[in-house]
Amino acid sequence: MYMELNGDNLKIAIQRKGRLSQGSLELLKAAGIEFDFSEGLLLARGRNYPIDILFLRDDDIPEYVQDGITDLGVVGLNVVREKGAEVATLDYLGFGSCELCVAVPRRSGFDSLWDLAGKRIATSYPGILRDYLSGKGLEARVIQINGSVEITPSLNVADAICDLVSTGSTLRIHDLVPIETILKSEAVLVAHRASLGDARKAGLIERLRTRLLSHLEARKTKYVMMNAPRSALERIRSILPGMKSPTIVPLADPSLIAVHTAVPEEYFWEVIEKLKQAGATDMLVVPVEKMVV
Ligand code: PRT
Ligand code: ZN
């Protein structure tokens, strides 16, 4: 089916096929946007939001957004940086996390970046690497390779590599060890600067971001319900500092109460353990779907 861009619609570019595709589609769905998607599609239109979704190679997204072909893009921060695109980075989206690392062969004797002065480093991220090295005042030969960077040391094409790492298993398989992280990356929402200055477009972008952020916040939060002796209330309150006031519900047995509260994921186990010690029982933990603040 052939479809043309709608000039009035907000336009967002996401990766067509790759590591960020699913996360990007899920994010749009979580924002309540309904659209038809099938593999191979280049363009989809929101049924209940004025948005056109373009499916592109990730490498093209920063430039499309910079040039205003789309208003928004979802792409790895590593790609945005490498392309040096003039775009506004609006939000970190919590998926596609990885680190751009310099790694060396295990038995090379190289322990730090300084051991690589004058050596060859193979990478698909020459721009980021060169900036990083020059920021440190270190001179090395940067060799640009477009794929399979991890095999270059064993082919004696390079002495070290600079590549993305997520689980670390690719490095281990090739007997490489990371010695320096030069960028922490994840998927980001980027915007065309002029779209942020256009009242109608900016309004649509803000509405979309409110929805996206309410989903991202919710993912970081659990809702916890528990019973506790009324006498433990003060102790329970002191365990939940900095969180919004918990809801206290009286129970049929006047010596007991129910406490309901939102707990951020990062403190979750710590808080749960302390609540148990304070006398909380029958704890029920439920995921939060949206959090609008
Ligand atoms: O076709 P297109 O150009 O759109 O896709 P692509 O092949 O260029 O990109 P893709 O889908 O591989 O990656 C898209 C984005 O995902 C990257 O730009 C990063 O922002 C992010 N990402 C997150 C990663 C990784 N994790 C990752 N592990 N991109 C690549 N890798 C590779 C890495 O290069 C290495 O080869 O995975 C290997 C290492 O993984 P581990 O798990 O063994 O450490
Ligand atoms: Zn790519």
Structural commentary:
The structure is a single chain. With 293 residues, the protein is an alpha/beta fold. The chain folds into 3 domains: 118 residues, D-Maltodextrin-Binding Protein, domain 2 (3-Layer(aba) Sandwich); 88 residues, D-Maltodextrin-Binding Protein, domain 2 (3-Layer(aba) Sandwich); 67 residues, Alpha-Beta Plaits. It is built from 9 helices and 15 strands. Strands 2-3-1-4-11-5 form a 6-stranded mixed beta sheet. The chain has a 5-stranded mixed beta sheet with strand order 8-7-9-6-10. Strands 13-14-12-15 form a 4-stranded antiparallel beta sheet. The mean pLDDT is 95. The structure holds phosphoribosyl ATP (PRT) and zinc ion (ZN).
The CATH superfamily of the largest domain appears as Periplasmic binding protein-like II
**Gyration radius, to the nearest Å?**
24 Å
Proportion of residues in helical segments: 25-40%
Mind summarizing the main beta sheet?
6 strands, mixed
Beta fraction:
25-35%
As for the number of domains, it is 3
CATH class (first level) name of the largest domain = Alpha Beta
Ranges with pLDDT <50 over ≥5 residues? none
The best one-word shape is flat
Mean pLDDT comes to: 95
What is the tally of beta strands?
A: 15
Bound molecules: phosphoribosyl ATP, zinc ion
Element order, helices and strands? EHEEHEHEEEHEEHEEHHEHEEHE
CATH topology of the largest domain: D-Maltodextrin-Binding Protein, domain 2
Distance between the first and last residues' Cα: 40 Å
**CATH architectural name of the largest domain:** 3-Layer(aba) Sandwich
